[in-house]
Amino acid sequence: MWHLAPETFTTKMDAEGWLSSERRLIEWDQWISPAQRAAMRKLDATQTLKVYAAEWLPQRVAVRQLKPKTESEYKRYLSRLILPTLGELRLKDISPATIRAWLTKLNPSAPRLNQNAYALLKEMLATAVEDELIDRNPCRERIKKPVRHIGEPATLEELARLVEAMPERLRLMIELAAWCALRFGEVAELRRGDIDLKEGVIRIRRAVQWIDGVKTVAAPKADSVRVVAFPPHIGQAIKEHLEKHAQWGKDGLLFPTTRGGQYRAPTFHSSHFRKAREAAGRPDLRFHDLRHTGATLAAASGATLAELMQRLGHSTVSAALVYQHATQGSDKRIAERLSEIAKESAGAGDPE
């Protein structure tokens, strides 16, 4: 079968150069006919961002093995922030000026959401460059990183009042979140088998979350599976909770609902936490601020940055290489010091 060149060459040298490039494609097993290439270029030239995104996202999820929550967030950024304005534009028509105009239309009161949407768009168009659909990535703006909000940690007195204001079967949930710096999904997913009273540790292996209304149990955020030593002063509370309130069996939930299921953050907040924080005098306190409280207390105990990262599960692959000297033994020392802090606080409040 004969194949025609895409054009008539003015010189023999130009024709030989074209033939040489065709032979190279054949050697690399990348050759398709010039007619097919022309058709593909025509299709690529008319491809919109919406069409490309529909192909790009499933591929990204599969290649990067993204978690369901991350995939759900990406879909939300696309459907709410990116595609309504840019979706019908052809890829080749999206310019730096187009991106700037889009950025100015985003809600300035949601800087973190805007940053995440821009990062996703930039990553997607970077792939389009790799796919040779566009020559350069039009996302060239440097967006100022928004200041991360870290809530005010609870004082020990506020923490005590908060625990007291909770139903008895949920008091330990507050103590573990604070003293062991756990996330809500990690606490809600704790099972009887995750508690080791003899060693004085809790194994954080899973977290529960609801994604688009569907319950999902997976590894903790950032795959931060870890072993956390609990402060000795709450050991008795843990033992009593296991005897009175936890479900039986190694897979029994530590904090089941009255119907035997798992708490969802909004329900827990509206039914119990909101009232308790009001009683504690901290109406601004979020559940996640208890984790911040735990980190602050651990730092006060003398924990190093490496030890804090290990305890909170903040290590990445690169960080793990730097902070690999953080060990379970040092974590127990942190836990013991936390109990000392609690005892000192209790002693300071006793009348002479």
UniProtKB/TrEMBL annotation:
Residues 149-336 form the Tyr recombinase domain. The keyword Disulfide bond does not apply. Coiled coil: none annotated. InterPro entries: CB, DNA_brk_join_enz, Integrase-like_cat_sf, Integrase_catalytic, Integrase_recombinase_N, Integrase_SAM-like_N, Phage_L5_Integrase_N, Tyrosine_recombinase_XerCD. Pfam families: Integrase_N_phage, Phage_int_SAM_3, Phage_integrase. GO terms for molecular function: DNA binding. Residues 47-129 form the Core-binding (CB) domain. GO terms for biological process: DNA integration; DNA recombination. This is Site-specific integrase.
